[in-house]
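Worked example

This section walks through a single chain of length 248. The input is the sequence exactly as stored; nothing has been trimmed or padded.
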Amino acid sequence: MGMLEGKTAVVTGGSTGIGLATAARLASEGAHVFITGRRKDALDRAVESIGPAVTAVPGDIAEPADLDRLHDAVRDRGRGLDVLFANAGVGALAPLAEATREQFDQIFGVNVRGTLLTVQKALPLLNDGASVILNDSIRADDGWENFGLYSASKAAVRSLGRTLANELKGRGIRVNTVAPGAIDTPGVDIALGEENAAALKAGLAAGVPLGRRGLPEEVAAAVAFLASADSGFMLGTTVYVDGGENHF
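Given that input, the structure is written out below as tokens.
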């Protein structure tokens, strides 16, 4: 039996990268996992790769109606919700002199508003003792040039996680955040384009004390730990999965 045998989980942004790896890991630990994402073709591939332990519900976490459909699907299963990984997010290069209102609205609309709505709308479904994990980032700490909007949005997510942990502790619901560092995911290519992404990836790897970028599966392992009873005495904390990047 896995650590999450018989549990129900939700992973937003579950069709690629960290979300896909986490959905696969939670399913391997015995959970039935609901995943959501904006691209149906990517969701279909995720379901094919993981198997019957996953259910895909297309949608955008920035759209309340899409979140309602996701949570309706969880409700219809009739077992409540034990694990929520609010993973979906977006990023873009946004230097101060060039940052636009549209970039701000998109990044904060998905990363902050969408994360808040994801948890808020899940409240009636969350079982007592459930685990909620928010996807943070080490960019919330390091002040990287040109990433101001993204970094600020992730700092907001981390702050939100601490407040939610305090508000939900009375039900035994544990809220924590995971802060990935330089992880090898398709998101960099999508955000920057392949040409810009190649240079950034090389720079990212060079800045990691372990000498490489992390794997989505390594973040998924941390999320699985936070989702399980093994992390039962952890609340309102941030787990760094960064190869030492933020510490040395």
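What to look for: The mean pLDDT is 93.
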